Amino acid sequence: MPAFVPPNRLLLGPGPSAVPARVLQATAQPTIGHLDPAFIGMMDELNDLVRYAMQTENHCTLTISGPGSAGMEACIGNLVEAGDTVVVCRNGVFGERMRQLVIRAGATAIAVDQTWGEPIDPVALDQALREHPEASLVAFVHAETSTGVLNDAEQLARIADEHGCLSVMDCVASVGGVPVRIDEWGIDAAYTGSQKCLACPPGLAPATFGPRAIERIQARKTPTASWMFDISELTRYWSGGARRNYHHTAPVNALYGLHEALVLLREEGLDASWKRHGSVSSLACSGLADLGLQLTVNEAHRAPQLLVVQVPHGVDDAQFRRQLLDVEGIEIGGGLGPGAGKVWRIGLMGHGAREANVERLLGAMSRQFDALGLQGIERAS
Amino acid sequence: MPAFVPPNRLLLGPGPSAVPARVLQATAQPTIGHLDPAFIGMMDELNDLVRYAMQTENHCTLTISGPGSAGMEACIGNLVEAGDTVVVCRNGVFGERMRQLVIRAGATAIAVDQTWGEPIDPVALDQALREHPEASLVAFVHAETSTGVLNDAEQLARIADEHGCLSVMDCVASVGGVPVRIDEWGIDAAYTGSQKCLACPPGLAPATFGPRAIERIQARKTPTASWMFDISELTRYWSGGARRNYHHTAPVNALYGLHEALVLLREEGLDASWKRHGSVSSLACSGLADLGLQLTVNEAHRAPQLLVVQVPHGVDDAQFRRQLLDVEGIEIGGGLGPGAGKVWRIGLMGHGAREANVERLLGAMSRQFDALGLQGIERAS
Asked: Most Cβ neighbours (<10 Å): which of A8, A128, A318, B265?
């Protein structure tokens, strides 16, 4: 069996995003031991870099050895116990996934629903919390990867707090691309993913837990169902200093890559990165409109790093994306859940958020529309 | 903050082991999408390579997106339900970890204990199963990384079967280093790790589930506590063919590396790899004895890929290992649990199982003993 050589792709889907050469090369450095003093020093630096990316001073800031969904499981699994009531904001696939995880933890999940493509209504959250004074946690997604909506995280966290609830935020698609301010917004726990605006290969989930979250974890009546994601155990490895305990074998090379991706982010600066994502996104929005494509999310609530457009009438979703991949070497995403077959998800994330990539995408889409014989006016759906 | 550059190390501890340049370079190839047809083709190849490494035809053979402990959690979490009784063979840290996971799954764990450094007694397992006819699963570790003992997997699985129990095996430290024959031995579920005899960076857990294990998973009364490791969901992604479902974002680059590591194993051939581990181990055993070091495990039950020796009288464990690391650039492992401070664990695993590495280690240990002023005769404890 021959070695696997990946084809050339420009990744402009919902993630993974394009990974810079410096990050790829970092992952290819020789493996060292997960308890090597040099590696432990690297982990401490990495925790600081994650604190910077997530804008937090939380002592308990670490990286879960698994993809973003593992970060979700670590947060929900530690903050929720059987019998709890959790209010989950749900306006896309990942809000629904949070709800599923709450149910698996044996808790009651109260959904605050919103039409896909619209942000969660803070009044609806407030109302749900009034109706469920027994709720102890509010869970929500910041940038919904399935719809391209940016929920108002600061406001949702404030409402949770007003009702005496902790908050847990999915910021998988937002960290690095738009402002995420864990401490300023009063978010109690949050997780992100390596493979979106952090421009790192997929497989790691940086996460952070504030003092109130740690207090709740320490007061649990039962251990977490998962040993792998038990924060009480993990912190002894990630934050144990010189007396660090062995827990599991950390994914050494993947962590090299995340460290380098975050060094790159720090070199650019968060403000500059957010600004770049915004301006590249504006360029893409104009260009997509010029092609006759319709954005599904109102500008006021649009996640700039993930643009969702309707598949034009007369275009076969899967066939078009396959052509774009095979002929142009560009990946964009199809819809998820109710959006399947109806929308495309265009990611301008991390290293991939570049004007040149937007130009290449617009040119490629235009050529493929031409190949299908579609005229501009017909494309508007 | 500067880029992290790992120091030069020869990894001769209990894992991670030395990773060949070809594998490191494979991980540094450009990231592509986790739903890209080219990536899906790679996953199918990878499943076949894992089947080869584990000697199984099981359809449900996949790679868990996490380290070996995640593989453990996937196997136990899927095969165990609240109220079950599970017999766990325990003669080291990883048997105890299996027991902990059984308890977290809400089941009753019956331990079959054995002195550390000795293999599980099949008669004791048989006896425990007679006393607990309600048991539905037997869990055991093949090569105990904490002690260097090789348990008789074939016999333990046969006894489980005789009592109508399924078997789950931890073969994290054994696959690639000594014969592992899932189908021939009748093992129902097993997991390994990428970072030992497979010579790949840590962070992935190839796993396999036989028909009886799948039947049990399908007959579960409750969903698994973990969404991340729910085999019913994972198989739709890993074995779904063209109609593959999105589950989580696979760790694309890490999987490139595992694919290449397994291609290398297939090029060498399992028989040749087992033989190499055996002969390199013999060389190391003689050399360690010549240095006056005492092996803790009888040859008949010794895992050749992981030699455990007593720390000689008058030698400070941590200080000696630190000297070996700092001066000689060689990592060996300390003891775990009751072995902490008392034994060293010397791994000759995967790409690291080379005569030249043994010679380098013996020379380095000898120099460090000399530096401490220890004579050969004093070293025997």
From this structure: B265
